[in-house]
Design a protein that fits this description.
Rossmann fold; 4 domains; alpha/beta; six-stranded parallel sheet
């Protein structure tokens, strides 16, 4: 063993490698993305890694590997689990031969997600064991343990880190390469009675699953990461916690002088360690639960009290003694622990702290999506429209002054919403915006549906040649894989034409006049038609020479500011100015200036 300073996601990845992982498949989504990327950078010989086109595909690829006896890891964020749930629910009934860990990174807050789903609740729903790490070090240990339990009980298992664990850093002890587990893969053995799901098989296996989870509840009560801290405390008030909340509780209790309350640490929220929690509950009259996001521990303890006649007042989200949405932080935990334990606080509260600046998320300076949105907006002036957005950088097109995202639900949903509105309001020009990565992940089915059902809509594909929102991962249109292979790019234009979309135009959105002209022409055609606005993300290309404002020619009309909202353009003492450190030289603002006062250095007036 040796010590390394690691981010949580790096620790999970290196733990998977130490556990002998043979295959990793996933779809990028913050806060999970770095796990797969770290495995790809450090993978040993014989370990296969891929960014799959979506989470469903990733789950099925990992399942196939686990059928052979290989150890497989599939990575995603909590909303990705919705996409992967179809194969996962059936896979639970079939089971696996090799260890299979489903890493789902939850995002309390939410910080960068549509929802605050709690994977612990999904674990109970799907009857799958779940591990819930409290720290970077624990995340490293847990994924190794998760593979062992998965293989021992022939079931997929969840590892559920949250954002503050995924992106925290800690110096931890990790295994040397000589200590890595080496998996002896048997290979796929044909057995239709095991691998082909039929109702009778599901019924039989369902009974085994329930029995297995009863066994795991007992086993998890002895699992070293489930524990009671300060078990001999005489304080009749105690605390139960899991995940990052447990770390916050420990930090707060270190501040308290004298005897500290007992703390039940729950590392495996499902199956719940009832033997351990029974020993805890019978000793205390009152328990306060700290957990993100659902009241999983609170419900389990309340259930146990009612089932076994234990007299203990369990508090938490259900009793409004705990926040019911959003993430905890140490200040929130401190306030509630001090109040709960009746500890008087003596501290000087500063009243002179300046307010933090408001920093709303915006499209980057020079982002080609800004030009795409603006071209559609100008082309459709005066028309009755709906602009259905999607998940990605381009969701930020909803911000003023662009105001070009009327709906956003989940990945690929914009196509279906545009069709639904169009069928009810045929006089509305319906647009659906989708990115290139999202097109492959979840939009193709929507296009097929539109063509088949004769919808009247315009699809706008914002092709910036990367998966920008989650860290610039490759996708089927980029021509490279996470294994480092250069492969044929899958053409979005060819896919659309193959589906049956007859009008498909490819335009550079930074060619403003042509972009506006193309939108006008295409939008007037009947049926399903598509425009691919193709221009690379500014983060993957070198910027052009920046523009500047010729103050002598500027008439201070502020059109460049009021029309496109580029963060590189601002007012300085009432004068329009361009921050050359932000400007990428896209030139969109120069095309809008009515007096041509915006130009590159050296360009004449």
């Amino acid at each position: 063993m040796h010590d390394e300073f690691m981010m949580g996601n790096q620790a999970i990845a290196m733990g998977a490698i130490a556990a002998g992982v043979n295959l990793v498949a996933g779809y990028p989504g913050t806060p999970s993305s770095e796990v797969l990327e770290t495995v790809a950078k450090n993978r040993p010989d014989g370990c296969y890694v891929e960014w799959s086109v979506n989470e469903k595909s990733a789950m099925e690829v990992a399942a196939g590997a686990a059928y052979t006896g290989a150890r497989a890891l599939v990575t995603m964020k909590q909303v990705g689990l919705n996409v992967a749930s179809d194969p996962l629910m059936s896979l639970e009934y079939i089971g696996v031969k090799g260890g299979m860990v489903v890493l789902v990174a939850d995002d309390p807050g939410p910080i960068s997600s549509q929802t605050e789903q709690d994977t612990r609740t999904f674990a109970m729903y799907s009857k799958l064991p779940c591990f819930d790490p409290t720290s970077v070090a624990e995340a490293y240990q847990m994924i190794i343990d998760a593979f062992d339990y998965s293989e021992r009980y022939n079931t997929p298992v969840f590892l559920r880190p949250t954002t503050r664990v995924c992106h925290a850093y800690q110096s931890i002890s990790v295994k040397d390469e000589s200590e890595y587990y080496v998996n002896d893969i048997e290979g796929f053995v044909k057995d239709s009675k095991r691998w082909v799901i039929f109702p009778k098989l599901s019924y039989f296996n369902h009974r085994l699953i329930e029995e297995r989870n009863d066994t795991l509840s007992d086993v998890f009560s002895k699992y070293e990461l489930n524990t009671i801290v300060n078990p001999d405390s005489s304080n009749l008030r105690a605390i139960a916690a899991s995940g990052i909340c447990y770390s916050y509780v420990c930090d707060v209790l270190e501040e308290i002088e004298g005897e500290k309350p007992a703390v039940l640490k729950v590392a495996t929220p499902f199956p719940f360690p009832y033997d351990l929690s029974r020993d805890f509950l019978v000793k205390y009259s009152d328990v306060l639960c700290f957990e993100e996001l659902d009241p999983v521990i609170e419900r389990a303890l309340n259930y146990q009290c009612g089932q076994e006649g234990i007299v203990c007042n369990v508090r938490g989200k259900l009793t409004s003694d705990s926040i019911r949405s959003g993430e905890y932080n140490i200040d929130l935990v401190r306030d509630r622990v001090y109040d709960y334990l009746g500890i008087e606080r003596h501290e000087t509260i500063r009243t002179d702290k300046p307010d933090l600046p408001v920093r709303p998320p915006v499209l980057c300076a020079g982002c080609p999506h800004r030009a795409s949105f603006y071209a559609v907006k100008q082309a459709m002036k005066g028309a009755k429209t709906i602009y259905c957005g999607d998940i990605g950088c381009y969701t930020l097109g909803n911000a003023m002054p662009l105001d070009m995202v009327d709906t956003c639900l989940c990945m690929g949903a914009g196509l279906g919403i545009a069709q639904g509105v169009g069928h009810i309001e045929p006089d509305t020009k319906c647009f659906a915006f989708v990115g290139d990565s999202t097109f492959f992940a979840s939009a193709i089915t929507g296009v097929v549906n539109a063509v088949y059902n004769q919808a009247d809509m315009t699809l706008i594909v914002l092709d910036n040649s990367t998966t920008a929102m989650t860290g610039h991962q490759p996708h089927p249109g980029t021509g490279r894989t996470m294994m480092g292979d250069v492969v044929n790019k899958i053409s979005i234009e060819a896919v659309l034409k193959g589906i049956g979309v007859e009008t498909v135009r490819v335009v550079d959105p930074l060619d403003y006049e042509l972009a506006v002209k193309t939108v006008k022409e295409v939008a007037d055609e009947p049926g399903v038609k598509a425009i691919i606005f193709k221009s690379p993300c500014i983060a993957i290309v070198k910027p052009n020479e920046p523009y500047s404002v010729c103050s002598g020619d500027c008439i201070s009309c502020k059109k460049c500011i009021n029309e496109i909202g580029c963060p590189a353009i601002y007012l300085d003492n009432g004068k329009v100015t361009i921050d050359e450190s932000l400007c990428t030289g896209c030139g969109l603002c120069s095309k809008l200036c009515p007096v041509k006062a915006i130009r590159r250095a050296g360009e004449g007036s």
